TrEMBL record, chain A:
Gene3D superfamilies: 3.10.620.30. SUPFAM superfamilies: Cysteine proteinases. Residues 158-223 form the Transglutaminase-like domain. InterPro entries: Bac_transglu_N (IPR013589), Papain-like_cys_pep_sf (IPR038765), Transglutaminase-like (IPR002931). This is Transglutaminase family protein.
From TrEMBL, chain B:
Residues 482-499 have a biased composition (Low complexity). It holds the Pfam family CP_ATPgrasp_2. This is Circularly permuted type 2 ATP-grasp protein. Residues 459-499 are annotated as: Disordered. InterPro entries: ATP-dep_Glu-Cys_Ligase-2 (IPR051680), CP_ATPgrasp_2 (IPR025841), UCP005522 (IPR016450). Residues 74-451 form the Circularly permuted ATP-grasp type domain. It comes from Sphingomonas desiccabilis.
Length: 271, 499
């Protein structure tokens, strides 16, 4: 399956900014599951970009732009070829062992209510079965707001509500899976969701869970189970902040507004 | 515990029993009238206040700036004692650097099952943000302040390895200056190794680890969180004595993965940064996003190899309490030999046999939370009430892996000026160890902290501790290095922290 992605991010500042420095995690890497055919970034102002890789193994770019800046627009466009078996991640750059992903972070920490929920939902059985039950239970518990574009909530805060975005669900899944003692991480990327083309105000988020003997399994609480064949994996981390497409700092007063448009389209089957 | 603590000048034998090497110092104490010592003390305090070497005690409503009390009676190390101690320190710091390079790189120490992996992976001091980075010359802990205590003539124990941003070196230098001014006769009567080369050595260390391919004259700076920081005096003192710029985050910017300092003359590329900002606050893009003290992009510049950070981010994993009890294994693994400086015996309550011993001897031990700090979650057995001991017993049984236990040590004493004249007070010691491209160097001196309250073992400045000058005596005749080393081989007792 061949997929094209267009991802526009536009910051508007209420007052001109003197400098903007951003860390971008918007660059998928080749794995056994996906081959990046083409991928480019365009920035609509004079900016310098520097390529690197973070501690999790994600490809990154630093973006440095000098002001005065009233807006800054970043466009990602690319094509990825997906293999027929995306459910188990293979061939990814893994600088950290699965055991590292047992640790929790403020964003992905479970509170008492979540802990009880995860344990009850998981029940007994093997790890794969228990994980699948948590995914189903999370999927069933929330009204999913697929079109919500604002940021990802801390897991415990999202759990207290009734509605959740796909990325909130992913963060909660990571927290719940760690409760039952399995390594889990948040994944940021793109998916088609079975359509030929779809547009959203945010990239997608899901989770990877490490099962002994089976490796990293992809799980999407938004669909309530294993994901389809149309997922482009971009960045993974302990929580949503570590995999966020853009982390930024700016020097200047005033507020900022971020508009995001993500379009994913099917380009047709190979062979 | 009945025997009096070992006194650094008088030994175990009381005021008349100093060895021949320290006779000059003992005579000085006997012959200088106490009123004269008191007068000199006051003069020293006035100078320190004028210089502004003060610290603020957190939690005090008035936030009064205090000076750390200074004591005019120095402690002294004999030349051969210092020689043995230095070799132990060098071995330890070499192992710390090797460990950091390994744990953020190949992880041989885990592959060979020397450390339990969960101790690393679950430890917040292990920073994923640093994984894959190799600092120039593989040096991570450029400046270490190793906290030691002494219990006998040849018995030194490492209490803590400070490999992040150890402070206190300004006291070593200022105390020495005060002593030379106030007690010049001591420096005529004794041959004392100078410490004033420290700033030069530090600058040399910084330059030696400048980024690969850097031009001959690397630009070095000291990065401070600002004047409200309790160690600001030291930051400005060090920058000043090295003749380099003292900067705050707002003075630095990163462009194209290169760090620049903003000056009146424009941007100047910065090569080496001695940062006195904690990892958490170093770069809001990588660590805490709410940090106002950090420089956005500095970690990218560091990862790209365009700037050297001193000390390296991520060092907390080497001086962490949970790792401490494994230091003997770590030293053995990387040095291939036995540790010359022992740890304080430590029982890891995660190990069933150790737990049993600790539970049976709670009234004699100090029990600490592995992930606690500042004296929270600590039981001092000999002074604890029965209720406190029972509460700890329950906590230990419930979560043994969170605790370690150590014996209460009879810290050595040094005669100290008190209201009632000279009287022994307990001390500890923090030498400063520098590592550059050319290896490890120990400055002959350090920071001696003294518990001013009679009988107290707490030397912290926030709890009534003071400081003293620390003399290292020069050898009488420079002996050939070989023969000296032979003599002192095996001088340190080997004690393992296995329960």
């Amino acid at each position: 399956m061949r997929i094209e992605v267009e991802h526009h991010s536009r910051y508007r500042f209420t007052e001109p900014q003197a400098r903007v420095v951003q860390l971008l995690r918007m660059f998928p890497d080749d794995t056994d599951n996906q081959t990046v055919v083409a991928w480019r970034i365009d920035v609509d102002c004079d900016a310098r970009l520097r390529e690197s890789r973070d501690g999790y193994g994600n490809l990154t770019r630093m973006l440095y732009a000098e002001g005065p800046l009233e807006t800054i627009g970043i466009t990602i466009s690319g094509e990825v070829l997906l293999s027929d078996n995306p459910r188990r991640l293979e061939g990814a750059d893994e600088p950290l062992p699965p055991a590292f992903y047992l640790r929790t972070t403020p964003l992905s920490a479970a509170d008492a209510a979540m802990t009880a929920f995860a344990q009850e939902a998981a029940g007994s059985g093997d790890d794969q079965v228990r994980t699948a039950r948590i995914v189903e239970a999370l999927h069933g518990r929330f009204t999913i707001e697929r079109r919500r574009g604002d940021g990802v909530l801390p897991a415990a805060e999202a759990f207290a509500g009734e509605r959740a975005s796909p990325r909130d669900l992913a963060q909660m899944l990571v927290a719940c899976v760690r409760v039952i003692g399995l390594p889990a991480r948040y994944v940021s990327g793109y998916s088609l969701g079975g359509c030929a083309r779809r547009e959203r105000p945010a990239p997608h988020g899901w989770a990877e869970v490490y099962l002994d003997g089976q490796g990293w399994q992809m799980l999407d609480p938004t669909v309530g189970g294993a994901p389809g064949l149309d997922y482009v994996r971009v960045a993974a981390a302990l929580d949503s902040a570590g995999a966020a497409p853009i982390s930024g700092t700016r020097i200047g007063h005033g507020d900022e507004e971020l508009d995001v448009d993500v379009a994913v389209g099917l380009l047709g089957r190979e062979r | 515990m009945k025997r009096a603590a070992f006194d650094e000048i008088w030994g175990h034998g009381g005021p008349q029993a100093s060895g021949p090497e320290l006779e000059a110092l003992a005579r000085w104490m006997r012959e200088t009238p106490e009123r004269e010592l008191g007068r000199r003390l006051q003069s020293a305090e006035a100078t320190f206040r004028q210089l502004g070497i003060t610290f603020a005690v957190y939690g005090e409503t008035e936030a009064a700036e205090r000076i750390i009390p200074f004591d005019v009676v120095p402690r002294a190390f004999l030349a051969d004692e210092w020689e043995r101690l230095s070799r132990g320190l060098i071995q330890r710091v070499e192992a710390i650097n090797a460990f950091l390079n390994d744990i953020y790189g190949e992880r041989r120490i885990l592959k060979e099952n020397i450390l339990p992996p969960e101790l690393i992976w679950g430890n917040p001091q292990f920073r994923s943000e640093v994984v894959g980075i190799r600092p120039p010359h593989d040096v991570w802990a450029h400046i270490c302040g190793i906290d030691l205590v002494r219990t006998g003539p040849d018995e030194f124990w490492v209490l803590e390895d400070n490999a992040r941003t150890p402070s206190g070196v300004s006291y070593m230098l200022e105390n020495r200056e005060a002593m030379i001014r106030l007690c010049p006769e001591l420096f005529r009567q004794m041959r004392i190794a100078p410490v004033d080369s420290y700033p030069d050595l530090l600058l040399e260390t910084m330059r030696s680890v400048s980024p690969n391919g850097c031009v001959r004259n690397p630009v070095c700076v000291v990065l401070t969180p600002g004047h409200f920081n309790s160690a600001y005096y030291e930051h400005s003192f060090l920058a000043d004595s090295m003749g380099i710029e003292l900067v705050e985050a707002a003075d630095l910017l990163v462009d194209d993965d290169v760090v620049y300092m903003q000056t009146i003359a424009g941007r100047v590329k910065v090569d080496v940064i001695y940062r006195r900002i904690d990892d958490d606050f170093l770069d809001p893009l990588v660590f805490r996003p709410d940090s106002m003290l950090g420089v956005p992009g500095i970690m990218a510049a560091y990862r790209a190899g365009n700037v050297t950070l001193i000390n390296a981010p991520g060092n907390g994993i080497a001086d962490d309490k949970a790792i401490y009890s494994y230091m003997p294994e770590i030293v053995r693994f990387y040095s291939g030999g036995e540790p010359l400086l022992p740890n304080v015996e430590t029982w890891r309550c995660r190990e069933p046999q150790a737990l049993k011993y600790v539970l049976d001897n709670l009234d004699q031990l100090v029990v600490k939370l592995v992930d606690g700090s500042g004296g929270y979650g600590m039981l001092v057995g000999p002074t604890a009430s029965r209720a406190e001991i029972e509460a700890f017993r329950a906590a230990l049984v419930a979560e043994p892996h969170r605790y370690i236990a150590q014996p209460t040590l009879a810290l050595s004493t040094v005669p100290t000026m008190t209201d009632k004249g000279l009287s022994p007070r307990h001390v500890d010691f923090r030498p400063f160890v520098l590592t550059g491209s050319g290896g490890v160097k120990v400055v002959p001196g350090g920071l001696t902290r003294v518990a001013l309250r009679e009988g107290s073992l707490v030397v912290n400045s926030s709890q009534g501790g003071g400081t003293k000058d620390s003399f290292v005596l020069l050898p009488d005749t420079p002996a050939p290095a070989g023969s000296k080393q032979q003599q002192s081989q095996g001088g340190m007792p080997q004690t393992q922290g296995e329960g």
